[in-house]
Design a protein that fits this description.
Blueprint lengths: L6 H9 L3 H10 L30 H6 L8 E6 L6 H5 L11 H10 L1 H4 L6 H8 L6 H30 L4 E6 L21 H5 L11 H20 L5
Parallel strand pairs: 1-2
Length: 237
């Protein structure tokens, strides 16, 4: 292993490792599994690093200073962006049937890398999202809403407002319909998951035997919006 006491020493050590040693080390590491409770914490997400060159300041500061290109901007979210795929990727516990209060509190303490909620602020979050809820299904749904809001929705709204306030044409969407075929392999509580919009952008419903007319109609609309935006900077034409 390499010492992490200083970045210079760590880089020197890593440069001395062979390809086989590095590959073997990665196989032993559990990069994506969410560490729970008293488990040793490890980095799952690698956020932007303020290095003074590529990022002279934090993204939030750069946005506040309107230090970005003045161009039309379209951005959006899906209504259940943390509903299924990311839960599987990061190996969250299975709460298909719901979530009890104890597990919810454990997950909240363990998911700081996703929520960016410091431990001292957790009571505020619990009061906002969960209050006195005890029903497992409601607890699960609110927990997923929190993950979606913290990971996708909040940053989307903040970014959109800064671009709008800078005088740039800014368009925000929320996708609320997913392909009908998804119901065959996802639990029924999952709505429009992360990445579900891609199928509509590239016209997947027209290459499927089981696509509904609603799937096809929405795909046409989305492709039109995207094409309009690419041509003119305005999704409406």
């Amino acid at each position: 292993s390499c010492s992490t006491s200083s970045s210079a020493e760590m880089v020197r050590c890593l440069r001395g490792k062979t390809e086989s040693e590095i590959l073997l080390a990665t196989l032993k590491m559990d990069f994506t599994r969410l560490p729970l409770g008293g488990e040793e914490q490890h980095v799952i997400l690698f956020p932007a690093v303020v290095d003074g060159q590529f990022f002279p300041k934090t993204p939030r500061e750069l946005l506040a200073e309107k230090n970005f290109n003045n161009i039309p901007y379209i951005l959006g979210v899906n209504d259940d962006d943390f509903g299924w795929m990311l839960l599987q990727l990061f190996q969250f516990p299975d709460f298909t049937k719901g979530l009890d209060r104890e597990t919810m509190n454990l997950l909240l303490r363990s998911a700081e890398q996703f929520t960016a909620v410091a431990p001292q602020d957790l009571p505020l979050v619990v009061n906002e999202y969960f209050q006195d809820l005890q029903d497992p299904v409601q607890l699960r749904d609110q927990f997923l809403a929190l993950l979606r809001d913290a990971t996708f929705l909040a940053s989307t709204i903040v970014t959109a407002r800064h671009h709008r306030d800078a005088g740039n044409p800014t368009y925000v969407y929320e996708l609320q319909h997913c392909l009908s075929e998804h119901s065959s392999f996802r639990p029924d509580f999952v709505k429009v998951d992360h990445g579900d919009e891609i199928a509509f952008v590239f016209g997947k419903p027209f290459f499927m035997d089981n696509a509904t007319e609603e799937d096809k109609m929405l795909s046409k609309v989305i492709m039109k919006y995207w094409a309009n935006f690419a041509r003119s900077g305005n999704p409406n034409g």
